[in-house]
Design goal:
heterodimer, A: 266 residues, mainly alpha, 11 helices, B: 264 residues, 12 helices, transmembrane (chain A), membrane (chain A), cell membrane (chain A), MetI-like_sf (chain A)
């Protein structure tokens, strides 16, 4: 009986989380323009989604930005974590504290303050994409740092020293000994960076060129507009993204089970 | 000139510089703008203006109320979920946990769009219940961020402690109250900090639900739209103050962060 109640509670909350997405997914396959209207099956939303240059450009731009920013953030954050770990205690503390600022700060404040410094004070044009890319790197790099740091702490320092004793230069030892050991942290940091960039709205609004949109800024503007073709094409986009995430999660889960570990946390 | 020799320490220099230039410097500039006017003259008008204007003060109070209610609702939903999952021995536990966390990876604007369509069918005019819809929207958006840290904390608790309490005669409720709950406080704190601040600042959730009520984030948005950098900076600074205070209160639990820490 108690087990039943517990299960029902979990089920209800899951329903709350997923029902809207499912309903939208069902309606994305009809030619209805509003939820609740009953209309026939149609793929026109998917046709619109994959043939409208504006939508494709926006999606491509978002992905490109996420990959680019995540790459830079991973490079900077990883180097930062390695550097901080081997610095004096005080230096480590300073870097870690600065690293924590964008993490606890509200994204609105991060985006707004960056816009003031770069655009208002230094006069950098938003059209150069510099403020946007810098903004997204700021958003992501601290999380790369946080996911790499524990891996460096867990590392056995004697292997690195052994490599040096055997004649490797510090640089070679870093590439061949340190990097492979912290690779899981780097990879999960990169994945995290990509998802953070994809999900961002605030930093992008305050730093993006007027003619460029990410999925988030585009969707937010589209909900305020009255263009129904675009509105329903976004239902299709939501469904596609949901399916992609679902497949990724399923693959990750299967691989984790194969490796015999219950949890896959990074 | 000494030849540059590679050392692991020097790897941190670019990142440290980057953080200083793009994280610390913007906050200093924010501070400068908050206390100057359009002519660059020092002024505290922005500060006094905020605390004497009933509208902005109202927004501050409304933000707090919304954040407190949203956080409470998230906590009341998330804690039992985390508790049930952590102590259940069903085999598909990790799959169910994954289901609760997965929404984090779906673009929030698309999820809120979905919620908006459903709420519109249920309520008709969304503008009729602004506070309720704001709480629903934010809970919908932030709930996974509350579940994950609490689950992580509870699932790492030493089983022996609970067994000892039971052996010593405590019933399940007493064990929960005296053992599990106090020990899961760190998870609760990091969950609360993941939800509370976004609930004060994430004004897009409100905008998308056709909500015309203002929270602190919306003020920055409207100053930004009006190119009023000085007014906007003051709001950002006040928010920063609240964030600092909040971080101090919660002990700034470093590394326990889960904005996405959530890489399951």
């Amino acid at each position: 009986m108690r087990k039943y109640i517990k299960g029902m509670f979990l089920g209800l909350v899951l329903l709350f989380l997923y029902l809207p997405i499912f309903i939208l997914a069902v309606y994305s396959f009809t030619d209805a323009t509003n939820i609740g209207a009953i209309r026939g099956f149609s793929l026109h939303n998917y046709v619109t989604l994959f043939t409208t240059p504006e939508l494709l450009g926006m999606i491509g731009g978002t992905i490109l930005l996420a990959l680019g920013a995540a790459f830079l953030a991973t490079l900077l954050g990883t180097m930062g974590a390695i550097g901080a770990f081997y610095s004096k205690k005080k230096t480590t503390k300073v870097i870690s504290t600065m690293n924590q600022v964008p993490v606890v700060n509200a994204d609105v404040v991060t985006g707004f303050s960056l816009c003031i410094l770069l655009v208002v004070v230094l006069g950098v044009s938003k059209d150069t994409f510099v403020p946007l890319v810098v903004g997204h790197v700021i958003l992501c790099a601290p999380f790369v740092y946080l996911s790499v740091m524990p891996k460096i702490r867990q590392m056995d320092p004697s292997i690195y020293e052994a490599a040096l004793d055997l004649g490797a230069t510090p640089f070679v030892a870093l590439i061949q000994i340190v990097i492979p050991q912290i690779l899981p942290g780097i990879i999960s940091g990169f994945a995290l960076a990509v998802t953070l960039s994809l999900d961002d709205y605030f930093v992008a609004t305050y730093t993006k060129p007027a003619t460029f949109d990410t999925i988030s800024t585009y969707v937010v503007n589209a909900t305020k507009g009255a263009q129904t073709t675009i509105k329903t094409a976004l239902w299709a986009l939501s469904t596609v993204i949901f399916l992609i995430v679902l497949v990724l999660v399923a693959v990750m889960n299967l691989r984790a089970n194969k490796n015999g570990s219950e949890r896959v946390d990074a | 000139m000494r030849k540059f020799s590679f050392s692991r320490k020097s790897l941190g220099v670019p990142y440290a510089l980057f953080l200083f230039v793009f994280v610390i410097a913007p906050l200093l500039v924010l501070f400068y703008y908050a206390f100057t006017d359009g002519q660059g003259q020092f002024t505290i008008a922005n500060l006094t203006g905020f605390f004497t204007n009933p509208n902005t003060l109202g927004t501050l109070c409304y933000s707090f109320a919304l954040a407190i209610v949203t956080t409470a609702v998230c906590l009341l939903l998330a804690y039992p979920i985390a508790y049930i999952l952590a102590f259940s021995n069903i085999k598909s536990k990790s799959v169910i946990l994954m289901l609760f966390v997965m929404p984090m990876w779906i673009n929030f604007s698309l999820r809120i769009t979905a919620l908006k369509e459903v709420l519109t069918v249920l309520e008709g005019n969304l503008a009729m219940h602004p506070f309720l819809n704001a709480v629903i929207g934010m809970t919908y958006d932030f709930l996974p961020f509350m579940i994950l840290p609490i689950y992580t904390t509870i699932s790492r608790l030493d089983k022996a402690l609970r067994e000892a309490a039971m052996d010593l005669g405590a019933n399940e409720f007493e064990t929960f109250l005296k053992i599990t709950l106090p020990l899961s406080v760190p998870g609760i704190i990091s969950g609360v900090s993941m939800v509370f601040l976004p609930a004060m600042t994430n004004y897009v959730v409100l905008d998308m639900l056709y909500n015309s009520t203002y929270i602190m984030g919306s003020l920055i948005g409207s100053y930004f739209a009006a190119y009023n950098w000085h007014g906007g900076s003051m709001i950002a600074l006040i928010l920063l103050g609240i964030i600092c205070l909040f971080t101090l209160l919660t002990g700034g639990s470093e590394e326990e962060n889960t904005r996405g820490g959530a890489l399951l």
